[in-house]
Amino acid sequence: SNYLQPSLPLAGKKALVTAGPTYEAIDPVRFIGNHSSGKMGYAIAERLQALGAQVTLVAGPTALATPPGVSKLAVTSASEMLAYCEQHFSAADIIVMSAAVADYTPIEVATQKIKKKDSEMSIPLKKTVDILATLGSTKSSEQVLIGFALETNNELANALSKLKRKNLDYIVLNSMQDAGAGFATDTNKITVIDRQEQIQSFELKSKSAVAADICTLIVKHLQA
Ligand code: CTP
Ligand code: CA
C-alpha cells in the first residue's frame, strides 16, 4: 500500500468512504433499492489511496472490483452501513459519504415470501438513520467531512441547507440537468459548496477526473 510513502500528500491519513446503494429487505426475495452504481465513491476511494491515504470503503451492493490497496467492507442495508461507519469514523481524517442510502426501510421484514392477493398492497416504512448527519454531529475540527447531494430543483439552496444541517465541510452537488451526469454514466458534473458558502463549478468529466478534483480540494483543505 501507499500508506507509508511519506512523499505522497495524504501519507499517514486515514479515509472513510461510502459508496453504492443500500438494499432494504421486504421479504427473503425482495428489497427497496436505487440505481446507484457506486462508481463515484469507488473512484474517490481509489484516488485517495493513490494519494497515500489508508482507505476504508464501506460499500453497498455494486458490480465493481475493489481498487487495489483499499480495504472494503461490504454491506447491504443502511443500518449495516451505519454500524461500520460508526466503527471507523473517529479514526478517520477524511470522510466522504457518496453512498445513495435508502431514506426509508420496511418496519418489518417478512420471514416468508409475501404472496400476491387480489387487493392492493402497501408496505409500512420507517425512516433510516441519517448516517452523514450522525457523523457530522460528532465531527472534530481536524476531520474533513464531505457529503453529496442529488437534487432536481432548488439545487443550490437545498444543497446548502444539507451542508449546514449535517455539519459538513463540503457538499458535492450532482447535477441532474446535464446529459452525461448521474447514476448510470461514467461521467459527472459537480458543483461544490463549502462552509463559507463559496461555490465552485466543474465541467462535465469522467468520474475518475471528478474524483481527482474532489481529492485536490481535500489535500488543499488539510494543508491550510
Ligand atoms: N445520507 C446518509 N444517510 C442517509 C441518507 C443520506 O448518510 N440515511 C447521506 C448521503 O450519503 C449523502 C447525503 O446524505 O452524502 C445527502 O443525501 P441525499 O439523499 O441527497 O439527502 P437527504 O438528506 O437524504 O434528503 P433528500 O433525499 O430528502 O433530498
Ligand atoms: Ca435521501
TrEMBL record:
* Residue ranges of the TM segments: none
Nucleotidyltransferase as a keyword of this entry, yes or no, is no
Which keywords does the record carry? Answer: Decarboxylase, Flavoprotein, FMN, Ligase, Lyase, Magnesium, Metal-binding, Multifunctional enzyme
DNA/pantothenate metabolism flavoprotein C-terminal domain: from which residue to which, for each copy? 10-220
The catalysed reaction is: N-[(R)-4-phosphopantothenoyl]-L-cysteine + H(+) = (R)-4'-phosphopantetheine + CO2; (R)-4'-phosphopantothenate + L-cysteine + CTP = N-[(R)-4-phosphopantothenoyl]-L-cysteine + CMP + diphosphate + H(+)
Q: What is its EC number?
A: 4.1.1.36, 6.3.2.5
The GO terms describing molecular function are: FMN binding; metal ion binding; phosphopantothenate--cysteine ligase activity; phosphopantothenoylcysteine decarboxylase activity
Region (Phosphopantothenate--cysteine ligase) residue spans: 15-224
Highest taxon listed in the record's lineage: Bacteria
One GO term (biological process): coenzyme A biosynthetic process
Q: Does the keyword Ligase apply?
A: yes
This protein's pathway reads: Cofactor biosynthesis; coenzyme A biosynthesis; CoA from (R)-pantothenate: step 3/5; Cofactor biosynthesis; coenzyme A biosynthesis; CoA from (R)-pantothenate: step 2/5
Give the co-factor note.
Binds 1 FMN per subunit.
Q: Which cofactor does it need?
A: Mg(2+); FMN
User: Could you say which protein family the record assigns here?
Assistant: In the N-terminal section; belongs to the HFCD (homo-oligomeric flavin containing Cys decarboxylase) superfamily. In the C-terminal section; belongs to the PPC synthetase family.
Function text: Catalyzes two sequential steps in the biosynthesis of coenzyme A. In the first step cysteine is conjugated to 4'-phosphopantothenate to form 4-phosphopantothenoylcysteine. In the second step the latter compound is decarboxylated to form 4'-phosphopantotheine. Catalyzes two steps in the biosynthesis of coenzyme A. In the first step cysteine is conjugated to 4'-phosphopantothenate to form 4-phosphopantothenoylcysteine, in the latter compound is decarboxylated to form 4'-phosphopantotheine.
Q: Know the name of this protein?
A: Coenzyme A biosynthesis bifunctional protein CoaBC
Q: Which residues of the full protein are shown?
A: 177 to 400 of 400
